Amino acid sequence: MIDLPPLFVSRMKRLLGExxxxxxxxxxxxxxxxxxxxNALKISAQDFAARSPFALEPVPWCPAGxxxxxxxxxxxxxxxxxxxxxxxEPSAMxxxxxxxPRPGERVLDLAAAPGGKTTHLASLxxxxxxxIANDVQPKRVHEMTNNLDRWGARNISVLVEQxxxxxxxxxxxxxxxxxxxxxxxxxxxxxxxxxxxxxxPNHVARCARIQAGLIHTAARLVRPGGYLLYSTCTFAxxxxxxxxxxxxxxxxxxxxxxxxxxHGFEHARPEWADAPPAVAGALRLWPHKxxxxxxxxxxxxxxxxxxxxxxxxxxxxPPKGEMRALYDRFVEETMRREPALRSRLAVFGNRLYALPxxxxxxKGLRVERFGWWLGTFKTGRFEPAHSLALAIEAEDAxxxxxxxADDPDARRYLHREPLxxxxxxxxxxxxxxxxPLGWAKRVQGTLKSRAPRWLGRV
Length: 458
What we know:
The chain is of the alpha+beta class. The protein has helices at about 5-15, 20-30, 45-50, 80, 95-100, 115-125, 140-150, 165-170, 195-200, 200-220, 240-250, 320-335, 385-390, 410-415, and strands at about 35-40, 55-60, 65-70, 85, 105-110, 130-135, 155-160, 175-180, 220-230, 255, 265, 285, 295-300, 345-350, 350-355, 365-370, 370-380, 380-385, 400-405, 420, 425-430, 435-445, 445-450. It is globular.
């Protein structure tokens, strides 16, 4: 049983009333939900459910989402390392579904780390268009790139920038912007001790001030006719209805897109924050009403009465000379087909990328990944990146070694242990039940794992 902050309890009793608060409190003291979202870039939800080693129940509001209901630890399974799913609690699957990006659009995840919602957006975009994932914390961005590598999306660029600088540099460029705002985390109370420990009314007020600045900046990045989705994982009206209400007063060019309250969702409560009635079109997700944590979601649309920003495209700098020869040799020896269009290849430092469609010139911004990282040029050789292995089909590689998911050698590979493997020397794609798991180098009958060290800790 968890201890809830007394001032939080008194506020929620006042808002919900004694009867509903009792159900709400009981839900917060129950076990949190374990969810996973299937990677539609690699396998359909139906096919995964048919082969799943875990007992699953569908998440009604996310076609690719499931709850794990048998106490399994899906984060330890080789399928997780292969990027067949992302561990995500069910309510957190809602924002990307509501924003509903389309293939070919330009989409920004403004506060993206650790990347869960970015992977969801990428799946919905089907590797078509431009998806930029940004966060201000370099350490969290590093964690995010690991998650994105495992997902195998090819159309993502990763930035480490202050939102204000993005707005100044890019302007009203994006069709859809997701702002999953940093918040007081009340919706995570039953699964996050630190959120309960650090909660104070002052913390809520501080978060609301930060959110007001972030959503103002996010609005500058939305093209006319485009969409901005604001979400939090808190119950605090100041951070939810209050933030949206103040935003609408300052940004009459935006309006709330009314969302349907189904699956146990409820409409927002503008009266809790003296917000305009239109804010009722947003949604609240309550843990005593649905199998998920607390969430708030508001979808906003900008009026289509001005011209969108036009930006010069980033010009690819293709590999030349020795770099070109090393890459060509790798493709000829290792791949059955070109992994990326030659027209999209670009070298930055010693890394080779395939740039996403429509990527603007990012000069002056701090870029962590320009696009799909294919590999690194080293003295006399080209070394393929883990992100290349996880975004191709098993049949694309000349040499492959496949392990069953329950084969101990699959875990030995992930822990970078050498394995016997007859065959020609060179790069080998390692797969689990036919899904790429990473690269290995075969040397004189021994398979030397090139799995990233972080993968063995998953």
